[in-house]
Amino acid sequence: MRTRRFKNYELETGCGVEACLEVIGGKWKGLILHHLMEHGTLRFSQIQKLKPALSPRILTSQLRELENDGVILRKVYPVVPPKVEYSLSSAGESLRGVVQAMQTWGDRFIIGANTPVKPNERSQEITK
Q1: Phi, psi at residue 123, to the nearest 5°?
Q2: Which terminus of the chain is more exposed, N or C, with fewer CB under 10 A?
Q3: Whole-model pTM?
Q4: HSE (side-chain half, CA atoms, 13 Å) at 43
């Protein structure tokens, strides 16, 4: 298990934001959560296909951290070859609004900054 940044938090000083970012922060955790929210239960290889730039080592690390924090569930099937599925826990489901708000804000930021965006249905919805 990874070491937490703080041994305890003070709720009145905004540490709730810091605790949330400690759990879902990082380059890939939000994206992993987004894919699990969009697609439901996924296997390791399916997550990797959704984001090929994500190395297997880093994906494994990020999944373990999310599992240790109780945000995702890992189900191992006793078959050969091994089959492992990942899904959102109830704590992960409770993050749905946070992740959707991040998606909306990020989409609008990208469009407002005139960043080149590959056109798709979602980008057309946002500009309306």
Answers
A1: -65, -30
A2: C
A3: 0.79
A4: 8
Q: What is the pLDDT of residues 13-29, one digit of tens each?
A: 657 788 888 889 888 99
Residue closest to 69 by CA, chosen among 95, 107, 48: 95
> Which sign does the torsion angle of CA 41, 43, 47, 50 carry?
negative
Tell me the domain boundaries of the chain.
29-127
Six token digits for residue 10: 């003070």
Q: What share of the chain is helix, strand, coil (3-state, %, to 5)?
A: 55, 10, 35
CA 7 vs CA 4, 19, 41: distances in Å: 7, 11, 33
Specify the CATH architecture of the domain 29-127.
Orthogonal Bundle (1.10)
Determine the angle formed by the axes of helices 96-112 and 15-24, rounding to 10 degrees.
80
DSSP label of 113 = T
